[in-house]
Structures are given as C-alpha cells and as structure tokens.
Write a structure and sequence with these properties.
alpha/beta; 12 helices; 11 strands
Length: about 280
C-alpha cells in the first residue's frame, strides 16, 4: 500500500491533537494561536504537495533502513534503550537471546554484562551490522514466530521494538516463552499502542531520500496480558516512558514549522511500552 502524504496533513493533525489535549485546561490565547496556525497551514499551498509513502513489510523496510538505523535522533529508540538497559542490568549473566536484534544494540549491552548472547533477526542487512557491532555474539536469520532454538535454551530473552509489527502477538510470545528456562526472564519493548492509534508507525528514509514505513499494530495492554498468560508468563513489571522536552525536537518536520503546537500535542504522552515477565 502506498499513501500520498502531505506535510499539511501532518501539521493539521498535530494542531488538532494540541487543541484536544488542552481543550479544557489550556488558555484561551493558546487555543486561538493553534487555530490561527491551522488556518495558515491550510492556506499555504507549499504545504499541500504530497509525497508517496509506501508501507513495506518488516524485512523489506528494515533492509532499506539498515544504512541509517543507528544514527542518533530517534526518540522512540532513545527512550526504549534507557528503560530496557535498566531491566537488562538487573538480570544475572547467563544465556541470553536478543530476538529481533536489528543492528545488535541490546546484544552489545548483554555481552558487556557477561551474557552468552545469541541474536536473531528477519533482515540480513541488519544482521550484517550486528556481526560488526557485536562480534562476541552469534547471529542468525530467523522469524520471531519460529525461533531456531530448543526448548529452555535461555535464562533471558529480550525483544526490542518488534512485536508490534506483527498483526497477532500470540505466536511470537509463545515462542519466546518456549525457549526460556523455568524462571527465565523476558523483556519486551514496543511502540506504545497510544502512539500507534495516533498513526505513528516505523518511518524510514532510503539513501535517495524517499520515505516509507513499517506498520505498527496498536495492540492494547489487554492483548499483551492475554498473550503472556496463554504462554505461561507472569508479568513482573511494566514501564511507559513518556515524551519530554528532550525528544520533541526529534519530531523534526512538525517541530520545524509549529514548535509550540508540537510540544502541546506530544509532551507527556507515553512513547514506549516495556514489559518484563517471567516464565513459571
């Protein structure tokens, strides 16, 4: 599927979200400013040109994204890494799986903490970078829903920013639970479903500057809890890092044109959902 997306649509949506979030608590002058900006956005012909933005599957999308994935400036990754790193640090060294490891950002931290690390990812181009970034770990191309490991292979499994790309959680969560030892720990991070419901996906740009995205499915908390229970996992924690002033500038296109509305729209909203669970 390819959608023709204009900057006007993005900016109008941000203005609308800013208005809704401050409908009863904001100042009248702020609301008038939002409305005035919205009128300018709608009347500016330069903002109306549309850019073809295709939706790609995870393997194809991340193959293109692999060249720039590790570049700084992704607010979701920044918030997620901090939360996941704290949970990883609390786990004793052992056999660890980095599932959907990408370029190896969590595998690198696991190795530093003394774990024996195996990583899998759907995208060979991402794994090429993981081999270089974390030579101490072993990596293989594999799907989350069909892990190439025997039962009870790991004391710890980490799955970062991947499960929400799947339309259904059950198969992947069951596989992650299967490869854990009894008492083994699972750490999962995803784009927060609130943001997915607002239309956030996983955007990327190719080397030619063209934009695309990988779908983020808005699985609700109840969906995760149901999948964990079905897989014999007990939830031990849930963290929901929120967007702060530090991350607002990373919403580059909106922040460049309407910085105050971008802040009013996104500041304080949850950006990432991080679960920790344990196999019975």
């Amino acid at each position: 599927m390819t959608r023709n997306v204009s900057l006007r649509e993005l900016l109008a949506g941000v203005e609308g979200l800013a208005l809704l979030r401050n409908l009863y608590d904001g100042a009248d002058a702020d609301a008038e400013q939002r409305l005035a900006e919205l009128r300018r956005v709608l009347d500016d012909p330069a903002l109306g040109s549309a850019e073809a933005t295709p939706e790609l599957g995870a393997a194809a999308g991340y193959a293109i994204w692999s060249d720039s994935y590790d570049e700084p400036g992704n607010p979701v990754v920044a918030l997620e890494e901090t939360a996941v790193a704290e949970l990883i640090a609390a786990a004793p060294p052992g056999r660890a799986l980095d599932a959907a490891c990408g370029t190896g950002r969590h595998a690198r931290r696991l190795v530093e903490l003394g774990h024996r690390v195996s990583g899998i990812d759907l995208t060979p181009e991402m794994l090429e970078r993981a081999y270089v970034n974390v030579p101490e770990a072993t990596f293989a191309v594999a799907d989350l829903r069909e892990l190439p490991f025997p039962d009870e292979s790991f004391e710890l499994a980490v799955c970062g920013l991947a499960l929400a790309h799947l339309p259904s959680l059950e198969g992947a969560v069951a596989e992650l639970a299967r490869v854990l030892t009894p008492g083994g720990r699972l750490i999962i991070s995803v784009l927060h479903p609130f943001q997915a419901l607002l239309g956030w996906n996983a955007p990327f740009s190719g080397s030619d500057g063209s934009r695309g995205f990988v779908r983020e499915h808005p699985h609700l908390h109840a969906d995760y809890l149901s999948a964990f229970a079905s897989a014999g996992l007990k939830v031990t924690g849930c963290v929901e890092p929120t967007i702060t002033e530090r991350e607002l500038g990373a919403k580059r296109r909106a922040f460049r044109h309407i910085p105050e509305a971008t802040a009013a729209a996104y500041r304080g909203l949850p950006a990432v959902l991080v679960w920790s669970a344990q196999r019975a």
